[in-house]
What we know:
- The chain has helices at residues 15-25, 30-39, 44-63, and strands at residues 3-11, 70-79, 83-88, 94-99, 102-110.
- The protein is an alpha+beta fold.
- It has a single domain, classed as CATH 3.90.470.10.
- A three-stranded antiparallel beta sheet has the order 1-5-2.
- A hairpin with a 5-residue loop joins strand 3 (83-88) and strand 4.
- Helix 2 (30-39) packs antiparallel against helix 3.
- The longest helix has 20 residues, at 44-63.
- The protein is flat and about 65 Å long.
- Residues 114-121 have low confidence and may be disordered.
Amino acid sequence: MTEVKAKLRNYKQSPRKVRLVADLVRGKKIERVISELKHVNKKVSVAMRKLIESAVANAKHNNKLNKDDLFLKTITVDEGPSMKRFKEGARGRAFPFKRRTSHITVTLEENPEEVKREVKKVVAVEKETKK
Length: 131
């Protein structure tokens, strides 16, 4: 199984907001991921779709992999450098805040049949009652 990686560094949105979209697409096939990201109404969905398409292009060009066989193995969102800024307040005061950035890493893999989400079965346990 071949892994293909692509990175987007210093994306100007907080990791907390980016992780919301990353959690939607983790572990799915590439065709479904791209179609879902087209309909997500978040700023990061455009950048994430371009990143995934870049990883698919890397897989085709460098490793000669078929797009239909790929799935999104992992997607991680890490915190990048934050820029310190100030917001003006009343009476000449300044309130500091941070403009946060994100590092997004995507890993694609071949053969989605081997990685299936296992559904845990809940087994009811019968208790013996005393009479």
